[in-house]
Amino acid sequence: MAIAALSFYVFAFITLFAAVNVIFARNPVHSVLFLILSFFSSAGLFVLMGAEFLAMVLVIVYVGAVAVLFLFVVMMLDVEAVASRKGLARYASVGGLVGGLLLVELVLIVGGRVGGLPTNTAAPALPIPDMAVRTNTQALGDVLYTDYVVLFQTAGMILLVAMVGAIVLTLRKRSGVKRQNIQKQTLRTIDEAVELKKVEPGSGL
Amino acid sequence: MVDIVKFLINPFGTMLGGILMLLVPILIGVAYYTYAERRVIAAAQLRKGPNVVGPFGLLQPFADAVKLLFKETIVPSGSSRLVFILAPMLTFVLAMVAWAVIPVGEGGWFAEGPWVIADINVGVLYLFAISSMGVYGIIMAGWASNSKYPFIGALRSAAQMVSYEVSMGLIIVSIIVCVGSFNLADVVRAQQGLWYIIPHFPLFIVFFISILAETNRAPFDLPEGESEIVAGFFLEYSSMSFALFFLGEYANMLLMCAITTVLFLGGWYAPFDVAWLTWIPGVVWFVLKVCVLAFVFLWVRATVPRYRYDQLMRLGWKIFLPFTLFWVIATAGVLVAFGWLPNA
Predict the structure, then answer these.
(1) Residue B90, by phi and psi: left (phi above 0), alpha (psi -120 to 50) or beta?
(2) Contacts of B171 (CB under 8 A, 6+ apart)
(3) Is the separation of the CB atoms in B161 and B257 below 8 Å?
(4) What is the pLDDT of residues A126-177, one digit of tens each?
(5) What residues form DSSP beta bridges with B114?
(6) What average pLDDT score do residues B115-143 get?
(7) Which of A33, A48, A60 sits opposite B132 (nearest CB)?
(8) How many beta carbons lie within 10 A of that of residue B245, not counting itself?
(9) pLDDT tens figures, A26-69
């Protein structure tokens, strides 16, 4: 297990290092790249815990899709690296407050003072299936598409509504814009596009 | 879970040998793929192509490699140095690590199970995750170059890859529904007797066009469109960093061909279950199938003119996405209706 432990520390260190650098990197694009690195090494931690499906989904969704959009936006914004440091003193107190609250909550939960992590495995509502029979991807699917199918569908609906909303908000009609008419273009034939003419010398068309 | 942890706990027992046995042929294959591309396109255009270095020009890839190694690496001023150097490395590494889950054969004298470095449960998702990260090498290169054309190329490429990934994901879902497992070796085993190219033929066509777009190849090579934006995202690259981009790109093309082989062409199986065909080792069939697909890549490049950008987006979002979505539902419907669902 030595290598597993070593891998854990390597991934954990990279995650923390990258997370700290997200905040302290001077260049916003570097911040996003560090964010991606921290997502990726968190996926490594998931794999070490045996949650390979979550690890892959984390990489596909966050690294492969969400962070690409972040990077897009940040690259286009052309933020002055120095200017973004200006508000540091002003926002430090709010940020510190939120961070502190989160830390306290985490310590309380993990420390077992309030509620504690569910450790009662004697009679869980959803028994953990035998790993030799069901892989955890299948187990997740068993639960997600049976007991929680309504919640799952609702989440999908909410995302769909959000997507439609975003499109409605940003869609605008402008006049005087020339658009491609694909149908017209593909229906064009050689007969109407090309014309052969015999040109007499010195006369032109 | 067990497989991935095993891989992490004991990578040196059987891994290192396997990695070398896989990576060395791939690198040689990539080198000769660049040579094949020049020869095939030359043949299509009635030229000769590289034919001077060695017999039939066979040593050309090595001559190119040596030339690139000894060139000066130029980092443009005002660029983000570290990101600029990291981008080609990332592209190359991602193109290599994805091969870890590709099963190239099974059984025989060599190994008990499938011939694969990491026989993990979520192989298909792993491939999808790695290929979805490929876009970063390109965006980083475009941004770090601090130059207009690479930036435009990077933006085009990012939009293009994200668009086509969606329909590729849905195609993979259709296949997975038929197989009932994310393990790539299981995907191949499910095709014994009937390759998925036969029931899923339209899907195969859509998938092949999508991988052309995903690897930024002609006719979708807008990110590096020579006539519009010079060389796109790797315009500012020189020497070894350029070579790494080049190798990464070609390794990616071979990888995509291998994925298509696994998903649609029955991996290591012979086309017919006849003794004199099955006598040939599975890995030979696998390589042969990859070569055929790789040839089609070159053939397409030599014959098809480049797409316009709006046509590319239209094809991805308005044609492929609805079609693949329909196909997922149709496949699931047929499987449920006839009771063919695996693991039911």
Answers:
(1) alpha
(2) B203, B206, B207, B210, B263, B324, B327
(3) no
(4) 666 666 677 777 788 888 888 888 999 999 999 999 999 999 998 888 888 8
(5) B106
(6) 84
(7) A60
(8) 21
(9) 888 888 889 999 999 999 898 888 888 888 889 888 888 888 88
Q: Does the pLDDT at position B27 exceed 60?
A: yes
Chain A residue with the nearest C-alpha to that of B129: A60
Position with higher pLDDT, B330 vs B22: B330
- What is the number of residues in chain A? 205
Nearest C-alpha in B relative to A52: B1
Q: Are B298 and B313 in contact (CB under 8 A)?
A: no
Mean pLDDT, range B205-219, rounded to an integer = 88
User: What confidence score (pLDDT) does residue A193 get?
Assistant: 84
Q: What's this model's pTM, rounded to 2 decimal places?
A: 0.83
Instruction: Spell out which chain B residues touch chain A, with contact meaning CB-CB distance below 8 angstroms.
Output: 1-2, 4-5, 8-11, 80, 83, 120-122, 125-126, 128-129, 132-133, 135-136, 139-140, 143, 151, 155, 158, 162, 165, 182, 308, 310-311, 314, 343
Please tell me the distance from the alpha carbon of residue B205 to that of residue B18, in angstroms, as a whole number: 33
